[in-house]
Amino acid sequence: MHDAIVHPSGARMRWVELPGPDPVRVYVHGLGATSAPYYAEVAAHPLLPRRRSLLIDLLGFGISDRPREFAYTLEAHAEALAAALEKAGVAGAALIAHSMGGAVAIVLAARHPELVAHLVLVDADLDPRPPAPVPAGGGIAGGGIAGYGEEEFVEGGWKEVRDRVGPHRWSTMRLADLRGLHRTAVSLARGTDPTMRALLLSLRMPRAYLHREGDAPDDVGGLRAAGVRVLSVPEPGHTVMLDDPDAFARTLTALLP
């Protein structure tokens, strides 16, 4: 396990690292997830050329620290991730980022383009959306998390979310700091300014957006016109890296050096 101090409180981000030559690959998880369980099989897949790979957890999630003083906005996550990558000696990396992690990766690439040579987004959030009604299930931000007030969520709303998302997703979500999880969900629902979509369109490094078959992102034509490769993956689930790692690895092989 590796770590780096990324916040004035002394909070550390941690990651599992697979050895190999450059260019580096950095894998970033989604809301309530953690990178090693989600990406380990893909990162070590025999179809992919071996590369130095960092399976990193954002602050408040997985094995990283949970500072109360941290803002847990998409922008704050991006700056903390940039600090971790810089301290790990990473530049010109391929970023593979899922869902909420994709939104963080877009902000990172826009603010620190020297760190990112390739950007692969997997079912990433591109647009702000109003929080899903509570307790009306799935939608934005992991089972309607952003629809709760912070204290309401911390004091018991998380139990309703646990029951809605099910034991598989909760197995990693339960590792998250409850306030960090809620604040991140609220920031994700609010989006960035400019929006994640606008930032993505403005980037100049090779970019790809992977989506589940039959569930393409809005305005595919606009993404493609800006040079974003939009590709479908046959597996219908949101977590293709878990549900069909072979298909995901094959797709990455066509996109990454």
Automatic annotation (TrEMBL):
Residues 26-128 form the AB hydrolase-1 domain. Gene3D superfamilies: alpha/beta hydrolase. Coiled coil: none annotated. The keyword Hydrolase applies. It comes from the Bacteria. Its EC number is 3.1.1.10. Keywords: Hydrolase. One of its GO terms (molecular function) is tropinesterase activity. PANTHER family: HYDROLASE ALPHA/BETA FOLD FAMILY, PEROXISOMAL MEMBRANE PROTEIN LPX1. This is Tropinesterase.
